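Progress note, sequence design subtask.
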């Protein structure tokens, strides 16, 4: 009888895995179709879209969104949320620029300082959520304002510019190379994004940490009872998300050639929209990184195409808001379908 029960349980688990596989495959196919349709629409609408330089620009623009989206994916998978991404993007750039330009340290030291600042703020978010038990929404809404305020205080509201002209890691552009450079014709930010996606995939799907993340988002109490150190995992996820936002901040800093405290306003919504559009549930525990990649590029293509078509910034805001509502609405329908 016990052997029969074991076989039955194994079969049920296999069926659930197959169901998840086909569900994710269906979502991925739908997203790929949306991306193709957008490409065709903008290519037909304007000759300026489907050109080599513009497609490279789309890739570069999507890179820092994609990098931050990997961290946001992990946060949403554990049932959390991080609204401080935009402020942290600007803050890490400000820290790196001040260390390099005003303190006179080598660029490598400045970039490391920016990454450490991002990881530390992510850790602060995690500590508040896990130790003080303040909901992630309120926590990161508060730190969004705090980080932005500190950035403006440190700079007096002005950009920090004037990077040294010497080469950096073999790039003649100097620090700008991290945002504007090329390696074998491929933009450096795109290379960094691909590396982050690969590492994120390995982390989520080839390590027990990834299984723990999905388990926590699926049912926190069950995960705790099964022996998972829930608070420790949550803290780690927020720290990693902060680090990845720091990487995105370094890319943006290199691209604009300065540390600007006003950057990244609304960036958190763009990241969250891409992640939810990619199929990650706002309730946690469901979604795939491949879908997120497609969601990032859908948002990148949409934004780029609207700009080329001379759609005003105000109307672009309307479109982005509608996309977010549609993405969340579809996610809620999926949640109800699973409940039934």
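Output:
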């Amino acid at each position: 009888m016990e052997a029969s029960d074991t076989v039955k349980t194994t079969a049920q688990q296999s069926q659930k895995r197959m169901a998840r596989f086909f569900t994710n495959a269906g979502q991925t196919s739908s997203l790929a179709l949306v991306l193709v349709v957008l490409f065709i629409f903008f290519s037909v609408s304007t000759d300026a879209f489907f050109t080599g330089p513009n497609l490279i620009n789309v890739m570069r623009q999507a890179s820092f969104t994609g990098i931050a989206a990997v961290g946001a994916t992990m946060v949403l998978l554990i049932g959390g949320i991080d609204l401080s991404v935009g402020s942290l993007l600007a803050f890490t750039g400000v820290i790196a620029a001040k260390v390099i330009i005003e303190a006179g340290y080598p660029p490598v030291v400045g970039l490391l300082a920016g990454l450490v600042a991002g990881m530390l703020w992510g850790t602060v978010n995690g500590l508040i959520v896990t130790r003080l038990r303040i909901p992630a929404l309120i926590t990161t809404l508060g730190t969004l304002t705090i980080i932005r305020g500190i950035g403006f205080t440190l700079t007096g509201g002005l950009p920090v510019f004037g990077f040294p002209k010497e080469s950096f890691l073999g790039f003649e552009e100097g620090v700008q190379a991290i945002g504007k450079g090329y390696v074998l014709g491929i933009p450096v930010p795109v290379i960094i994004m691909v590396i982050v996606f690969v590492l994120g995939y390995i982390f989520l799907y080839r390590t027990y940490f990834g299984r723990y993340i999905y388990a926590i988002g699926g049912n926190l109490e069950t995960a705790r009872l099964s022996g998972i150190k829930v608070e420790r995992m949550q803290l780690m996820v927020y720290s990693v998300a902060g680090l990845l936002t720091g990487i995105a901040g370094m890319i943006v800093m290199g691209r604009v050639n300065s540390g600007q405290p006003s950057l990244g306003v609304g960036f958190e919504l763009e990241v969250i929209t891409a992640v939810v559009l990619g199929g990650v549930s706002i309730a946690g525990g469901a979604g795939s990184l491949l879908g997120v990649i497609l969601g990032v590029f859908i948002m990148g293509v949409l934004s780029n195409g609207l700009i080329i078509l001379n759609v005003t910034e105000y109307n672009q805001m309307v479109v982005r808001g509608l996309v977010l509502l549609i993405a969340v609405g579809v996610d809620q329908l999926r949640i109800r379908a699973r409940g039934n």
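Residues 2-45 form the longest helix (44 residues). Work on this subtask will continue into the next period as scheduled.
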